[in-house]
Amino acid sequence: MKLKIEHLASKLILVIAALVLAATATAQDKIKIGVLFALGGTMAFLGEPQQNTLKMLVDEKNAKGGFSGRKIEYIVYDTEGNGTKAVQQFRRLVESDKVDVVFGPNTTAEALLIKPLASELQIPMMSFSGGEEVVVPVNPWVFQAVPNNRSVINHFYDYLQKQGHKKVGLLTATDAFGQGALNTLKQLASNYGITVVSTEEFGNKDTDMTPQILKIKSVNPDVMIVWGLNPGPSIIMRNAKAVNFGKPIFNGNGVASPQFIAQTGEAGEGSWVSSPRLLSPDTLQSNDPAKPLVKKLFTDYSDKYKKEPAAFAAIPHDALLVLDAAMNKVQGALTRKAIRDALEGVTNVVGANGTYTFSAENHSGLDSKSQPMVMMKIINGKFIAQP
Amino acid sequence: MDQLLQNAISALAAGAIYSIAALGFGVVYNATKVMNFAHGEFLMMGALISAALVNSAGVQVVLAVAIASVIVTLLGIILDRYVIQMAVRKTVLTAVMITIGAGIAFRGLMVVTVGRDMLFPPAFEGIKTVTVGSIYLPSQVIWILLLLAALSVALAYLFSSTRLGKAMRAASDNPRAAMLCGIDIRAMSLVAFAIAASTGALAGAFVAPISSAFYESGLFFGLKGFAAAMLGGLGNPIGAVLGGMLIGLIETGSAGYVTSVFKDAIALGLLILVLIVKPDGLLGRAEAKRV
C-alpha cells in the first residue's frame, strides 16, 4: 500500500513537472496582454472603438507571426469606468491570468487608483488616460500612451501664439476634464505671452451658456477657449452664434468627433478643434511623418467595422507599436521586469498620435515636441487639419 | 443694456425648462404623496424618442412628438400598475425607492433601444426667432413658454375645479376616507402617472432642440425640476412655474454678474434657505394635522 502511494506520488510529481515545463515553454513564445477598457457605463464611448482597434491589429499582427516570433494573446476586462472595478480587474489580470503587461484603463481616475498597485505587484502598464498625474511623479512601472493635458495645452498655446493671439477668455466645464484643463491653461499661459482675461465655467448638461459668453465678450478677448465634453460645447457654439460672438473659438480635444459637427451645424462653422490626427487623415500635411500610418489605420478600421473610427481609437495602435519596439530590445527571458526596462528605453517610435520617446524620467511617450495633436478647423461641415 | 436684456431672456429660457420639468412632480405628489424620482427620465425619454424619430427616421415633428408621448405614457402606466401597485408593503417610501430604480431601468431601456448618441433635433417650425437689434429670443424658447403656459393652467384648473382633480387630491390626503366615498384610489394613482408621463414626454420633446436629447440627461431634469417644485410648493402647478423661473433667474444672474463657478451652489443654497423659512415652499399650503 505504502509503496503504491509513493509510486503514485512520484508519478504525480513527474506530471506536474512536465506541466510546469510546458507552461514556461509556451510562456516564452507568446506575450500576454491584459486590457482594461470601459465597455459599459458612461465611458463606453472610449472603450468600444479602442477594443475594435486592438482586436483588428492583434489579428493582423498574429497572422504575420506576432512580435518577433511571439504570438500575442490578450484578455479584456470591462471596468465600466469605475475605479473600484478597475482595481479588482487589474488584480485579476495580474494574479490569476498572469499577464505580462497591462494596457489601459481609459480614465485618469481609474489609472490613479491602479498606479500604486502596479509597483506593488511589479507589473508594467501603459495607461490610456490623459491625466498628467498618472506619470508625474514617475512610477517606474507606469507608462502613458496618450498625450497628456500638459502636452495638449502646450501645443494649443503654441498654435495661438503663432497666430498672434494674446488675450484669451476661458470657458471650461465644471467636471474633472474641464477643471484639469483649466489649471493647466492658467498655469502655462504666460510661457506663450498669453493673458487670460476672463475665466467662466459651465455644467456639461446646462441648457444655456449665453450669460457666460456675453460676459467673456464684454472683456473683448482675441479668442475664446472652450474646454469640455458634449453637449455643453455644442450648446456654447449655438449660443455664441446667436449672440454674434464674432471672435474665433478654439475647442479642446473633448469634442474631437464628427458628432460635434452634426450637433453644431452652421454654428460650428469656422471654429477650431484640437484633435488627434485620426479625425481627418486625408487633410493632414503631406510632410507629417504619421500620415501614412493614420491613413492605413483609418481605412482598415472603416473597411472592417463599416464605420469611421473615433479619434481616440488610435491609442491601442500606438501602444502596440511601442510594445513591439520594447520587445525587440528584450534579450533573454521575457519577464515583467525585462519589459519594463525595455519600455523605458524606447525612443523615436512614430505612431499615429505622434513620435514616442520614453526615458527613466519621462514616462509619457508624447511630449509637446512629439507633435501629439493637430489643430483642425471646421470648413464646410468638415474637419480640415491646419498647418 | 443689451447684455442685461439678453441675460433676462436666458433666465426666462432656463426657467421655463426647469418649470416644465417641475410640473410632473406635483401631479404624482397630489394623487399619491409619492415623490416620483423617475420623472426626469420621462422628459429624457420624450426627448430621445422624438429626436431619434425626427433625426434618423425622418418622421414629421408633430407625429414624432405624439408617438414619443404615447410610448412614454404607456411606460408611466406600466410603472404604476405593474411595479408600484404590485409592491407588497405599500408605503410612500417603498414607492419612492421603486421610482429611483425605475429611473435607472428607463435609462438602460433607452441605451438598448435608441442608443448612446447625443441628438440635437431641429427647432420646431411655425414660429420665427425674434431679433430686436442685437437681442434675440429663440423660436424654441417661445414654443416652450407656450407649452408651459398651457400645461400649468390646465393642471391648475384640473386640481382646483374638476371632480377628477379633487378626487385625486382626496385619494392622497386620506386614502381610507376617499375609498369610503367611492374613489378608486388605484385608478387615481394610474391617472396621475399617465398625466405626469405624457406631459413630461411633451416637455422633453420641446426642450430637446435646445438642450440635446441624451440618455443621461434625465438626472439633470429630475434634479432641477425637483428643486423648482420644492421651491414653489409641491403640488401647486403655478408654484412650480414660479419656482422654476426663480431658479433660472438666480442661476443666470449669478453666471452673468457674479461668477459662473458658483451658480448652482448659489441657486441651490437659496433653495435650502427658503425651505428653512417656509418648509412648504413659496406657494405651498401649510399642512395642518390634528394631533
Taking the sheet with the most strands of chain B, its summary is:
2 strands, antiparallel
Domains of chain A, number: 2
Order of helices and strands of chain B: HHHHEEHHHHHHH
Distance between the termini of chain A: 84 Å
- How many helices of chain B? The count is 11
Helix/strand-derived category of chain B reads mainly alpha
User: Order of strands in the sheet with the most strands of chain A?
Assistant: 7-6-8-9-10-13-14
Major sheet details of chain A:
7 strands, mixed
The most extensive contact between chains is: A-B, 29 and 30 residues
How would the global form of chain A be characterised?
A: elongated
Shape of chain B: globular
Gap from first CA to last CA of chain B: 56 Å
The CATH homologous superfamily of the largest domain in chain A is called Response regulator
Write down the overall mean pLDDT of chain A. Answer: 89
| DSSP, total strands of chain A | 14
Low-confidence stretches of chain A: none
Approximately what portion of the residues of chain B adopt beta-strand conformation?
Answer: under 5%
Provide the helix percentage of chain A. 40-55%
Uncertain segments of chain B: none
Name the average pLDDT of chain B.
Answer: 91
